[in-house]
Fold Geranylgeranyl transferase type-2 subunit beta.
Amino acid sequence: MEAFLKQKHIDYVKSQEEHRSYEYWLSEHLRMNGIYWGIMALATMDELSALPRAEVEKFVLSCWDDKYKAFGAFPGHDAHILSTLSGLQILKIYDSELKQLTNEQKQGVVKFIEGLQLSDGSFQGDRFGEVDTRFVYTALQALSLLGALTKSVVDPSVEFIMRCQNFDGGFGMAPGSESHAAQVFVCVAALAVVDRLDLVVDDAKLAAWLSERQLPSGGFNGRPEKLEDVCYSWWVLSSLAIIDKKHWVDLKKLQSFILSCQDPEKGGFSDRPDNQTDIYHTCFSITGLALTDAPGFIKIDPIFCLPCEVTMGMIKWKD
Ligand code: GRG
């Protein structure tokens, strides 16, 4: 099995922030997510200090959208639920009490998120109306980080998620949509945030669907008949971890596949061996490796995709 090239990956993450390439400016709309992916990759390797905390926090706070009272992906962008969760996660990694935000800002975020819930329990990402189970997870995790989950938000959310479970045991992005591993993660993790995993009555069926994602290479695909992609190392394995079934897959073969996706010269990971690296695949390769219990990583909470030391002792939600 190839060795994990830790220093190369630290340098790769740093280079993403230091190097203002054409692609950097083209991906402004993903900047907040990108920083979360970089920070999570570093935190998982126990190398958080490789990026300057003050500058990272300053950037996050500069994405505050004072009209909608939440975070956009880049300074001057409108607030969106995805960048808001990433912003909260980054701040929380540095300070589990979120002291970087005023109470007024925290209340603003709670109102912003609650205002995105629709009558069927689903959430839209912003006022433009895209609906996806991703946003239910994002909303529940963000409200949980703020200690602001209420029954009136949770009950309809849970009802909506359960309408997205399919006959094959998996979950899709909306009721009737095809099962997809990343959507399984957001649905199962959302149920876990609010302690409603009991609703997944046939977890063996779900675990079977998830473990069928492992291909002969050791990597996972996201749904039947598709190619493996290293990011599913996280989406599939975290889902199995949440339902306590990691042992249903071959973790050694998965480690070997993940390591084969490293760029041995510049660091970083690509979706499959020898492809172009990016910070998204780098994050979910490293967090995925940590979930395989490979040595040298800190413990990652599979429900929140945050270091366990950040979520430990956090009251996720009170009835
Ligand atoms: C805090 C971990 C965390 C997540 C926040 C944004 C979000 C919540 C979750 C994203 C989940 C998601 C839908 C990820 C996309 C995964 C992916 C690679 C989809 C690509 O789908 P296709 O159809 O690829 O292009 P396949 O692999 O099916 O061919």
Residues 82, 134, 137-138, 182-183, 186, 222-223, 226, 229, 231, 305 surround geranylgeranyl diphosphate (CB under 6 Å). The mean pLDDT is 96. The first strand starts at residue 64 and ends at 65.
